[in-house]
Write a structure and sequence with these properties.
Blueprint: E1 20-22, E2 25-31, E3 50-54, E4 73-82, E5 90-95, E6 98-99, E7 101-106, E8 109-115, E9 121-124, E10 133-142, E11 170-171, E12 175-180, E13 184-193, E14 198-206, E15 214-222, E16 225-233, E17 238-244, E18 266-274, E19 277-286, E20 291-294, E21 297-300, E22 303-304, E23 307-312, H1 326-338, E24 343-346, H2 353-362, E25 365-369, H3 378-395, E26 401-405, H4 420-436, E27 456-459, H5 465-472, H6 475-479, E28 503-509, H7 528-544, E29 548-554, H8 577-585
Parallel strand pairs: 23-24, 23-29, 24-25, 25-26, 27-28, 28-29
Antiparallel strand pairs: 1-12, 2-3, 2-4, 4-10, 5-9, 5-12, 6-11, 7-8, 7-10, 13-14, 14-17, 15-16, 15-18, 18-19, 20-21, 21-22
Length: about 575
């Protein structure tokens, strides 16, 4: 099952236009370790030394290069034919992600630049094009090993260590073109309200000052059946409209809410008119669902939700952070659900929009987590804040996302226990996130040393269920900071305390089979029986503690030297998936 406007491999499935061109594939490529390219005019005349398979980074085997050593500057170039009949349209060049600073030239002229390795960005390249001819797109990616740069699990040393892996440099998600009108939609922010059976559309448009008589219509359908059609006269670039979805007292759509069991999605088409002429047409979808907190419970659609999550780092052997295909994303989601989990905590990675699309379609909950910095500095605060706000805006419409996680385990804020500056940084990010999205929980420092947080999330890699129960039999001692939530970390930073939030164990387990090639948490096991005994004991212990309303097991797959997945890195089950499901659903 897909949504009405779904196009396979379309990189932005919540904002679909028909007229687009995928630019993935063979690009000319060159390292620039001396940073001499710009001075030498590579942006005007580029001669590559390699061919690279975009969107896979040079560090991966899938790229065709497979060089894991760090190179701070890399260049890409390719020729793109722009048809004569596109003249009169605006040509938009999109990059779904480039790590870390991207500078883009078209036919030798600078078209724009962007900083941030995980957010999508685009440029209107129309002024630099020759229509009816081949045009050259050149990109320079500047990366660093700085720990003030949001990098997540990317190493900043020569070799992998602990839970940090080969870095990601340059283009690592889809590059594409689309053709659009001068007057067009830039974005629609979609906010459902199930209590009032309404949905709000906040529109952002370009070119409204250049035309009169603009009108925007939204046509809402459910399973191809008409629900509502609403119009709005356009007189400024930012407007809003609310749509009542209850059109019959006992209509069949009154309770078509999105949930893991019944992931209903409404289709919506936005059509911009100038008089009778269609200027822009965009296909999208939304889910009517509500995530909220009442006392010590997380509620989905006003009903208590027990979250059975699994940590998902989204790495592949041949392509690292880049999914090898859309089918690979779907397969991961299917395996997670087959194991009895109802959600994933997407760890230290902002995932491909197509992954979120399929979570929306299939009904898998997602915690969206920012890639961490690892040094506290004014530069880190600025870089982190800017990119995080971009990401929240870009991911806002996905009904599958039920929590925002800007920080994890005090990474990048290592002195938060007592340092007021670092504490205020997390408070600031919490409130900025709430300013854009007041409707989802925000976990300000997942794992421990919380400041302000809507859910109290704790990490603990204790080895047995009995040990877990011994430590967590007195939850009040942990929530009051009288004792640590594991062997060495307190639940709250100094000056902060428990306010009755829901409590979840959001990292545990991490069990690995005995191997000399990698590591897991605690002692490695020698047999399937030992694995299942430990896994089941921990899971059942957590589920038995009154006051804990969910958990997140570490993790879906092995990742490079970290071999504590329920699946190998090439997605082979270590334990029958149905056995894992039985334990999770018991």
């Amino acid at each position: 099952m897909t949504t009405k406007f779904y196009i396979k491999d379309y990189p932005r499935p919540q904002f679909v236009r028909d007229n687009w061109l995928n630019l993935n594939g063979q690009w000319s490529f060159r390292f620039d370790d001396e940073n001499a390219g710009e001075k030498s005019g590579w942006q005007e005349t580029f001669e590559g030394t390699h061919t690279i398979n975009v969107p896979f980074t040079y560090e991966t085997q899938a790229s065709g290069i497979g060089e894991e050593a760090f190179h701070p500057n890399v260049w890409y170039s390719r020729s793109v034919p722009i048809p004569k009949e596109a003249e009169g349209k605006r040509v938009l060049l999109h990059f779904q992600a480039v790590d870390y600073i991207a500078k883009v030239w078209v036919n030798g002229t600078m078209a724009g630049a962007h900083q941030g390795g995980y957010a999508a960005f685009s440029f209107d390249i129309t002024p630099y094009l020759v229509f009816g001819a081949d045009n050259t797109i050149t990109l320079k990616a500047e990366d660093s090993d700085s720990c003030t740069q949001p990098r997540g699990k990317q190493r900043w040393t020569k070799d992998n260590f602990e839970c940090f892996y080969v870095q990601t440099t340059g283009i690592w998600r889809t590059v594409w073109l689309e053709y659009a009108a001068e007057q067009r939609l830039d974005r629609v922010k979609i906010t459902p309200d199930i209590d009032r059976n309404r949905v709000r559309f906040d529109y952002e448009l370009t070119g409204t000052e250049a035309a009169n008589g603009l009108r925007l219509e939204a046509i809402v359908t459910l399973k191809d059946r008409p629900v509502k059609r609403v119009g709005l006269d356009i007189d400024r670039p930012c407007l809003s409209v609310e749509v009542d979805l209850v059109h019959e007292a006992n209509g069949p759509w009154k309770r078509s809410w999105w949930s893991p069991d019944r992931p209903y999605l409404y289709d919506v088409e936005f059509v911009l008119y100038a008089g009778d002429a269609v200027m822009d047409r965009v296909g999208s979808y939304f889910g009517m669902r509500k995530i909220s907190i009442e006392k010590n419970k997380v509620l989905l659609n006003n009903v208590p939700l027990y979250q059975r999550l699994i940590l998902d780092q989204g790495y592949w052997t041949e392509s690292h952070l880049t999914p090898p295909s859309e089918e690979a994303l779907i397969d991961d989601i299917d395996k997670v659900m087959e194991m009895g989990y109802n959600g994933v905590r997407k760890h230290m990675k902002i995932e491909d929009a197509r992954f979120l699309y399929w979570c929306d379609v299939k009904g898998l909950l997602v915690w969206s987590e920012m890639a961490a910095t690892f040094e506290y500095h004014d530069r880190a605060v600025e870089a982190f804040s800017k990119e995080w706000l971009e990401i929240v805006r870009q991911q806002y419409n996905h009904p599958s996302i039920v929590a925002w996680v800007p920080f994890n385990e005090s990474w990048g804020i290592s002195s938060i226990l007592r340092d007021r500056s670092q504490q205020k940084f997390t408070e600031g990010i919490y409130h900025l996130t709430k300013a854009i999205d007041p409707n989802r929980p925000v976990i300000a420092n997942d794992g421990w040393e919380h400041t302000v947080s809507d859910i109290l999330t704790l990490h603990d890699y204790v080895e047995t269920g009995d040990e877990f129960l011994k430590r967590y039999k007195d939850l009040e001692a942990i929530t009051s900071n009288d004792t640590t939530c594991n062997k060495w970390k307190y639940a709250f930073a100094e000056g902060y305390g428990y306010r009755g939030q829901p409590i979840m164990i959001t990292e545990f387990g991490g069990i690995a089979y005995r191997s000399e090639k990698g590591w897991g948490y605690g002692r490695q096991v020698d047999s399937d029986e030992a694995f299942i005994e430990r896994f089941e004991g921990l899971t059942r212990a957590i589920r038995s503690v009154e006051g804990i309303c969910g958990y997140c097991y570490t993790q879906v797959t092995d990742v490079q030297q970290e071999i504590n997945g329920l699946l190998t890195e090439d997605r082979k089950p270590k334990i029958p998936l149905e056995r894992i499901r039985e334990i999770n659903r018991s």
